Amino acid sequence: MQFMIDAPLDMHLHLREAEMLQLVAPLSAAHFAGAVVMPNLLSPVDSHQKLSAYRQAVVDAAGDDSFTPYMTLFFRPYTKTELETVRDHIIGIKLYPAGITTQSEAGVADFEAIGETVALMEELQIPLLVHGESNGFVMEREREFLAIYRWLAKSFPRLPIIMEHITTADTLDILDEFPNVAATVTLHHLMLTLDDVVGGLMQPHLFCKPIAKTPHDLQALQTAVFSGHPRILFGSDSAPHPTHAKECCGCAAGVFSAPVALPKLVELFAAEDRLDMLADFVTNNAQRFYGISPGPKTVHLQSKAWTVPQAYGTVRPFLAGEKIQWQVTAIEK
Ligand code: DOR
Ligand code: ZN
Q1: pTM recorded for the entire structure
Q2: Which among 10, 41, 74, 102 is the best mutation to test ligand 1's pocket, defined by most ligand atoms within 8 Å of the CB?
Q3: Is the CB of 208 within 6 Å of ligand 1?
Q4: What residues pair up with 9 in beta bridges, in sequence order?
């Protein structure tokens, strides 16, 4: 069996810097027409200058002009002039609560202080991408953040807001309450519950933020994605860490799914007999919500099993050693 998809997009991707960037950027560029690149570098991407330098580094590392990096800035209080300067060079601004995940120490500590910048973003129509977790009990963090999503969506009704990597059934309700809100869903959150992470022997390579939740939450996410919700977008949150940072005391959060994401999604949608809906999830919904039109790139896949390698360089991928029933066989640019 064959399947092809035009301009697949990964709407949430960590590419890192230096050697890691060189390793992982080509893997995303091989399967995707574009990706939203996260700004949580060691020194966050929070100025026009850092943004330009990082964009160039990503383009050079990807080495493929059929791959468009959609760049983001790290949220901080910005002036109108700063926002006007970067506006045409970014797809949005990513907000992290301070210290909530990898390299987010410079994030927001006081949500009462963000209104001015968010109002400017609404005026300039710069989307706000949000890592929505409180610093409460780990299984309740996303639920506890919902009040902030509701406050943002209601106070800034013309601001496009993206709830990143959602994991709970309750979060889905917000999509029905507010037309200016969309959500990304990862591959791993479409497959895992907390049991897969810590129910047996602990699996550091499945440890990520937000942590995978309950069977009820998993089912709700699957139902929403496979029924084709028009404001749910695929975002892998592929987040590479070298093996030594995962297999240690104090394991880093992040699942490296970039090289398996597209073939595994095809397998999952095929198993649900929903291949006809995959293009909406992996590109059409994102193009509509963000108003973007990625360049031409058609990815052809075939149902031909392959075994996921144990490692790509220093990084162990999601589904390492497992068989995936579909593989990418050709790219037309
Ligand atoms: O698991 C995660 N890893 N969640 C995030 O939000 C950040 C990411 C990373 O940068 O490693
Ligand atoms: Zn992320």
Answers
A1: 0.98
A2: 102
A3: yes
A4: 34
CATH topology classification for 8-291? TIM Barrel (3.20.20)
Domain chopping of the chain, boundaries: 8-291
Q: Count CA within 13 A, CB hemisphere, residue 171.
A: 34
What is the distance in A from the centroid of ligand 2 to the CA of 7?
A: 21
Active site residue 237: yes
Residue 69 to residue 281: CA distance in whole angstroms: 19
Residues 6+ apart with CB under 8 A from 283: 5, 6, 7, 8, 9, 33, 294
AA identity, residue 174: I
Q: Which ligand 1 atom minimizes the distance to the CA of 208? A: 1
Closest residue by Cα to atom 3, ligand 1, is 254
Residue 295's CB is within 10 A of a number of other CB atoms, namely: 12
Q: In this predicted model, what pLDDT tens digit does every residue of 74-105 receive, in sequence order? A: 999 999 999 999 999 999 999 999 999 989 99
- The residues with which 36 forms a beta bridge, in sequence order, are 70
Token digits for 283?
Answer: 């590109």
CB 107 within 8 A of CB 96: yes
